[in-house]
């Protein structure tokens, strides 16, 4: 009689515990796919391995194309047994699998535009974030597949200022900070069929975890802080003695994990001020300079860095110079139209971004291309709809 299998778990590197959904991603915090299967039986009946099926799917219970839509079989080898002679006991099977040969990030999804989106939480003064939904309306005119959809948690750790982990295994949503930090994810599932050779299983046994799978496009809709040079979150409730807006992510948080990658190739920051650079200054100054290491010409993956900011001296003296449009109605329209451009396969997204924003009189739109050229748009005269696009090579 085969042994009875009762558990399959995706483990940490040292096999000490199961991987944590909100704070650990395969291919990032956890280097490989570490699988443990538990059974019960006699030593004489122990198989040398248990076949496990590995597959991936888009996160957040969304439909789309994944890297491994058809499960591939891997063998999880016998590791140890507590059985003793004629007395049955617990048995463990373990394996550690390199992720690269599995083709995650490519496979069946190669050639399809992958998009990850993250947004601010609902705020009393702004209402719910809506531009991300309009981006998806625009994307629907083409072929694309999701690589994560997440909402920032409205708090950071009051002790060290770090973003608090979010996301939930139940609905397969990723943590927003890690979604941005790693550029996109898929859900990886390891399961054992009831008909698996060598083991008796009454039901399908399965385990799942998030695995890094960079998107082509990342869309962020939220806050940016000029002085702190970072993306931010509005805290709710606001901790005693703390600012309502807390630093949430900096370019330096992304650089280690994005260096040398081919994707993401486009980052859209639909938030205030963060790409500001005073281009006429010598030396040039502004928070936008912090994001240059993410460009393709500087060792990062980006061809297009799109957002909002000012090219003027001391823009903080006039906050209107730093503002991004609110979602409803202008930000929504811009998001839908840039989504349509992405869906059409446009290879001039920098110009598309500036022209779309200018058409909606969003004059603070700026962009940086992969070669390090900074682009911005100016209105010709306050009473006209005509404009000029300017470019400056950054150092």
Q: If you average the pLDDT, what whole number results?
A: 92
Number of helices: 5
Question: Helix content range of the residues, please?
Answer: 10-25%
User: What series of H and E elements makes up the topology?
Assistant: EEEEEEHEHEEEEEEEHEEHHEEE
The description of the largest β-sheet is: 8 strands, mixed
Number of strands: 19
Q: Can you list the strand order of the major beta sheet? A: 9-1-2-5-4-3-8-10
Q: Which structural class is indicated by helix and strand composition?
A: alpha+beta
Which stretches are poorly predicted, pLDDT < 50 over at least 5 residues?
Answer: none
- Principal-axis shape equals elongated
Cα separation of the termini: 71 Å
* Alpha-carbon Rg, integer: 24 Å
Beta-strand percentage? Answer: 25-35%
Commentary on this structure:
With 395 residues, the protein is of the alpha+beta class. 13% of the residues lie in helices and 32% in strands. The chain contains 5 helices and 19 strands. Strands 9-1-2-5-4-3-8-10 form an 8-stranded mixed sheet, with no helix packed on it. Strands 7-6-11-15-16-17-18-19 form an 8-stranded mixed sheet, sandwiched between helices. The protein has a 3-stranded antiparallel sheet with strand order 12-13-14. A hairpin with a 7-residue loop joins strand 18 and strand 19. Helix 1 packs parallel to helix 4 (327-343) and helix 4 runs antiparallel to helix 5 (349-359). The longest helix has 17 residues, at 327-343. The chain is elongated, with a radius of gyration of 24 Å. The chain starts with a strand and ends with a strand. This is Gingipain domain-containing protein. Residues 144-168 are annotated as: Disordered.
């Amino acid at each position: 009689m085969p042994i009875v299998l009762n558990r399959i778990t995706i483990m940490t590197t040292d096999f000490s515990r199961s991987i944590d959904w909100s704070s650990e991603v395969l291919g990032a915090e956890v280097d490989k796919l570490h699988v443990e299967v538990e059974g019960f039986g006699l030593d004489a009946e122990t198989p040398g391995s248990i076949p496990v099926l590995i597959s991936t799917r888009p996160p957040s219970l969304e439909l789309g194309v994944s890297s491994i839509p058809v499960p591939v079989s891997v063998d999880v080898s016998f590791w140890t047994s507590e059985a003793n002679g004629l007395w049955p006991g617990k048995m463990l099977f373990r394996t550690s699998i390199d992720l690269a040969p599995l083709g995650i990030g490519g496979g069946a999804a190669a050639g399809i535009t992958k998009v990850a989106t993250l947004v601010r939480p609902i705020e009393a003064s702004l209402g719910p974030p809506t531009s991300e939904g309009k981006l998806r309306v625009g994307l629907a005119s083409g072929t694309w597949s999701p690589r994560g959809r997440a909402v920032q948690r409205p708090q950071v750790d009051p002790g060290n200022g770090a973003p608090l982990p979010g996301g939930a295994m139940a609905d397969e949503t990723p943590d927003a900070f890690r979604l941005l930090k790693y550029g996109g994810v898929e859900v990886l599932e390891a399961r054992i069929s009831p008909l698996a050779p060598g083991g008796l299983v009454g039901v399908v046994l399965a385990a799942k975890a998030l695995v890094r799978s960079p998107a082509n496009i990342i869309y962020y809709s939220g806050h940016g802080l000029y002085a702190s040079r970072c993306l931010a979150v509005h805290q709710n409730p606001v901790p005693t003695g703390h600012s309502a807006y807390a630093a949430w992510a900096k370019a330096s948080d992304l650089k280690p994990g994005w260096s040398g990658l081919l994707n993401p190739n486009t980052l859209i920051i639909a938030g205030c001020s963060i790409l500001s650079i005073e281009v006429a200054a010598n030396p040039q100054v502004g928070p936008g300079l912090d994001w240059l290491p993410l460009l393709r010409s500087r060792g990062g993956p980006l061809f297009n860095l799109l957002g909002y900011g000012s090219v003027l001296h001391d823009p903080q003296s006039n906050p209107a110079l730093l503002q991004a449009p609110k979602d409803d109605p202008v930000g929504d329209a811009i998001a839908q139209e840039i989504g349509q451009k992405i869906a059409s396969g446009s290879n001039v997204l920098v110009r598309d971004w500036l022209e779309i924003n200018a058409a909606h009189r969003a004059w603070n739109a700026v962009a940086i291309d992969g070669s390090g050229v900074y682009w911005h748009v100016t209105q010709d005269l306050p009473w006209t709809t005509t404009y000029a696009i300017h470019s400056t090579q950054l150092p």
